[in-house]
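User: I'll paste a sequence; please echo it back and then give the predicted structure.

Assistant: Echoing your sequence first, then the prediction.
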Amino acid sequence: MVTMALIEFRNISKRYPGQVAALLNVTLSIGKGEFVSIVGQSGTGKTTLVKLLIAEEKISEGRILVGGWDITDIKFSEIPLLRRQIGVVFQDFKLLPRRTVYENVAFALEVAGVEGGRIVELVPQLLKIVGLEHKAERFPKQLSGGEAQRVVIARALAHRPEILVADEPTGNLDSINTKEIIELLKRINEFGTTVILVTHNRDVVNDLKRRVVVLDTGRVVSDQAKGRYVLS
């Protein structure tokens, strides 16, 4: 079965002032519904790849397509539309400390102009997906690390994105919470969402037995359909 390409990086390079190259001639295609782990040591270009995908930064050379949409020269006014298609989960949570769990998730919908009635309908559904419907009125400081990360995932799913990017989502978690977050990402993937996991966690990658892309010095050095975390 041929999987339709949802994300295409075509010969992309990213150079910073002083000609420091974060990515060099990277070509990578990710199919609709895939679960892909992107691994590599610090400074190999993993986070840069994520920033280019969500148009936080622009590439120096090449093309990027998302769902057939060429976002290489995306207009500033179009970036919100792109980011509604790509949910992002960060390692450091980025939750609003003075808002409850419910309000943190609702905020993602409010800023997109979703009507209040629809927000009231959607937020409980999102919290149920991540297993936090019983902690809707808690504040971030009252949550464990794993619970806080679940809130971030619920918020990232607010617009029902086709793509979920998890950038080191278990970096601050213990092994039990790490396992729970990965199981949640797997369930989300089973619903048809394309998941891109950026991680240093060798055990997580090896247990997944899914596609693994290895970056080294800004280049793709390995791409295996059922890979392991192997670095030279």
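The chain has a mean pLDDT of 91. Residues 187 and 207 are 15 Å apart (CA to CA).
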